[in-house]
Design goal:
Blueprint: E1 3-10, H1 11-27, E2 31-37, H2 43-48, E3 51-54, H3 64-69, H4 71-81, E4 85-89, H5 91-100, E5 110-115, H6 126-140, E6 145-148, H7 151-159, E7 168-170, H8 188-197, E8 206-210, H9 219-227, E9 235-239, H10 245-254, E10 261-265, H11 271-275, E11 279-282, H12 291-298, E12 303-306, H13 312-318, E13 321-323, H14 328-340, H15 342-355, H16 361-381
Parallel strand pairs: 1-2, 1-4, 2-3, 4-5, 5-6, 6-7, 8-9, 8-11, 9-10, 11-12, 12-13
Length: 396
């Protein structure tokens, strides 16, 4: 029996992205376990995995208990579980796990790390970029395969020497349920109820942004664009929560926009809100591969997005409207264009829907199967493709 352990920092990542993989490989007769903070208290995780284990680490890679206190636990768990494969996600869990298991013998499990967007990127200063890149490069020495989900990260992984090309793999995301995210998946009455709750008439345009209120998402850029929009009938809605929410609520009130800007809080199901919108907007400075953009495209709703990595990939392939990061006037012009040309929004949305199949779960599950088969064959042969850091790798 093949044994797989999937590791993330928090149980919400298992719930949000990885349960379909547990179900698929268990159906093949594999034993699939999950490790994350809070995993044993998560009903979806308990149902999806053969066994769940709790990890006592924080979101900070510098937390001493996570960095040092978890090492013995991880080594014992892997030894007792006799796993063939470990698949680690999220930076903290991935670094700590690989560090703890760095002295595994060649006969041990093969380790895969999926980077959901490196912490170093063009919008960050060189000192933190150098630190994050150095940590990734160090952990890359203990990694059998590094998976990246956008083209910018693939280029950076090679440029910075995180792993050599033979151990680098590209996957178009982590998979989206295209049956769930389809225009026909939501009753028209639910969409109408969303618009009615905001007091919208059929003629009024609604724009939606989905994302946590943190600086990297750049909500303020969108608010600045909306405040200067040459159409005072349009509405804007934010789905999400976060540290900056109250500050931005205050900004909206002072700008006199409270009647047209709606703070929806966390929404477990964003589909009715997307389908009620003329377009969704994401002005982020960085993403791994934006889930909300992917969802909007799958629903046939056009996206106005920044040119940041992880947004750019999707818009270039599936269609949409790109604006430079931080360019509020460009955001406003794109919004106004769609208000004035609603048929353009419909055409772009339909085009995106027609091209999104590559990002669907069946394709991603198939790619994971190929990767795992490759690693299992490698393990049976006793070979390893891990190597030392290339001397030519660029620092920082």
């Amino acid at each position: 029996m093949t044994r797989l352990l999937i590791v993330t920092t928090a149980h919400v990542t298992l719930e949000g992205f990885l349960l379909p993989y547990a179900a698929h490989f268990r159906a093949k007769g594999w034993l699939v376990d999950g490790l994350a903070r809070g995993a044993t208290r998560s009903a979806p995780c308990q149902a999806a995995f053969d066994r769940c284990f709790d990890a006592e680490w924080s979101r900070s890679p510098l937390d001493p208990h996570g960095l040092f206190g978890m090492s013995g636990f991880l080594r014992k768990l892997v030894r007792d579980g006799n796993y063939d494969l470990l698949h680690v996600h999220t930076p903290v869990a991935a670094f700590i796990t690989r560090c703890a298991l760095r002295h595994l013998p060649r006969s041990g499990p093969r380790i895969v790390y999926t980077a959901h967007g490196f912490h170093f990127h063009a919008g960050r200063s060189w000192i933190p970029n150098a630190l994050f890149a150095s940590a990734e490069r160090l952990a890359g020495r203990w990694t059998d395969r590094l998976v990246v989900i956008n083209q910018a990260d693939r280029q950076e992984a090679l440029r910075r020497g995180i792993v050599d090309a033979s151990r680098l793999r590209f996957m178009p995301g982590i998979g989206l349920d295209l049956t769930h995210y389809s225009p026909a998946s939501v009753p028209a009455a639910d969409v109408e109820a969303v618009r009615r709750a905001m007091g919208l008439s059929a003629a009024q345009a609604l724009f939606l942004m989905v994302g946590e209120f943190n600086p990297g998402k750049r909500h303020r850029d969108l608010l600045m664009a909306f405040a200067g929009l040459e159409d005072d009938s349009a509405h804007l809605a934010f789905a999400g929560t976060g540290l900056l929410e109250e500050e931005l609520r205050g900004w909206v009130a002072k700008a006199g926009l409270s009647q047209r800007v709606h703070f929806l809080g966390f929404q477990k199901d964003v589909r009715p809100y997307m389908l009620a919108s003329l377009a969704t907007i994401l002005p982020s400075e960085r993403e791994g591969l934006s889930r909300s953009v992917m969802e909007s495209i799958a629903l046939g709703v056009p996206v106005i997005g920044s040119s940041a990595r992880g947004v750019r990939d999707l818009l270039e392939e599936c269609g949409g409207f790109q604006v430079p990061v931080g360019d509020s006037p460009a955001l406003g012009r794109a919004m106004l264009r769609l208000i004035r040309e609603p048929h353009l929004a419909q055409r772009v949305g339909a085009l995106g829907r027609s091209k999104v199949e590559r990002y669907g779960l069946p394709n991603l599950v198939h790619i994971h199967e190929q990767l795992y088969d490759e690693l299992l064959a490698e393990r049976r042969s006793g070979s390893s493709r891990r190597s030392s850091l290339p001397h030519s790798a660029k620092l920082g």
